Amino acid sequence: MKNARVAIVGAGLAGLYAAYVLEKKGIKDYVVLEARDVLGGRIASTIHSGGKFDVAGEGFDLGPAWFWPAFQTDMAQLVDGLGLETFEQFETGDMLLERSSNQPPQRTAGYVNSPPSMRIAGGMFALIEALYQRLDPVRVVTGQTVRSLGISGPSIELLTENAEGQTLSYSADHVLLALPPRLVESQLTFSPALPNELARQWKETDTWMAPHAKYIAVFDQPFWRDQGLSGEARSAVGPMVEIHDASTPDGKAALFGFLGVPADIRSRVSDRELMNACCEQFVRLFGSQAATPEAEFIKDWAKEVHTATVADQRSSGEHPVPALSPISGAWANRVTGIGSEWSREFTGHLAGAIDAVNRGLDSF
Fold first, then answer.
1. Which of 268, 287, 303 is the last residue of a domain?
2. 108 vs 361: CA distance, rounded Å
3. What beta strand segments (E) does 121-187 contain?
4. Which of 21, 30, 123, 214 has the highest CB neighbour count under 10 A?
């Protein structure tokens, strides 16, 4: 059994930022346990270098892409403190509205966010890499899925399992849950059980991104800009309902869209069929130049077992903030939720992970 003062379950933004905060507080006796073989959780980016594409590094965001430093000040301070370069989301020009399949797209004045939506150069994964580089890599363990938490005297025993079914156990004084509440409730076994009311709250909390899918097409040039278009579009036809320019600052051009097709229907068709339908929609909106992208990506978060549960296939659209931790009973002061869904101000947003961690670690 391996021992640590604090065990962090999940190595997305919340988990790595929590480890970063602990380091700053002088608490170096921690371990971060991540089920995936890669870091980042719901943050994933592609890379474009010499024609080669892969996840991570510089590229286009398959998960969340924006933050708003004007009012998400803690997030802004973190990004600045890590020395990351940011740039404004491109929104110059007209947008397109696709109201029905019987009408051509309608061109209308574009919408510009104020304050502006900001992106990170290299994709949001650059934030993950910057945090990881400031941690002790020995304390960040990937490929270990936490299966159960049990109270054993003054400590908590965490049982983990790798892809081969081999198990390991860790002992900790406190556990920080850097996962969506619903995923915690559905995939982790607690002994003794969590209080019924707390378990109900966590189970009923929708997971952000979980029901969604995102399509990205990469091109030689942002040809839509030459037409005076921002790359933004809304569609009642689909398959994508919301589209934006995803180009990078150094000239790599891309468009992305959120699919409006429900997850249970998406599961019946292949990714190739979905990508073909999305590419055809880009052609309808932006013209024949959209027919031959350099590369295409689709990320269906509903298929990610370490993100989504069956209950996440369709979102209710309501996101009440659940309790961070039990206030009484055996688990009081022993386990704390720090995922983005626990944020009071920015539930589900990247800044929500920062807010939830700061709340959860306030007493450390």
1. 303
2. 47
3. 140-141, 145-152, 155-161, 167-177
4. 123
Dist. CA 228–CA 84, nearest whole Å: 30
Do 145 and 239 fall into the same domain? no
Burial state string for 275-310 with b = 16 or more CB within 10 A and e = fewer than 16? bebbbebbebbbeebbeebeebbbbbbbebebbbbe
**257-260 contacts at long range (C-beta below 8 A, 24 or more positions apart):** 257/214, 257/215, 257/233, 257/281, 258/212, 258/213, 258/214, 259/212, 259/213, 259/214, 259/215, 260/235
Q: What is the pTM of this model?
A: 0.95
Give the residue-averaged pLDDT of 280-286: 98
> Which two three-digit tokens encode residue 190?
């607690």
Give CA–CA dist 337/304, Å, rounded.
Answer: 20
Q: How confident is the model at residue 316 (pLDDT cuts 50, 70, 90)?
A: low
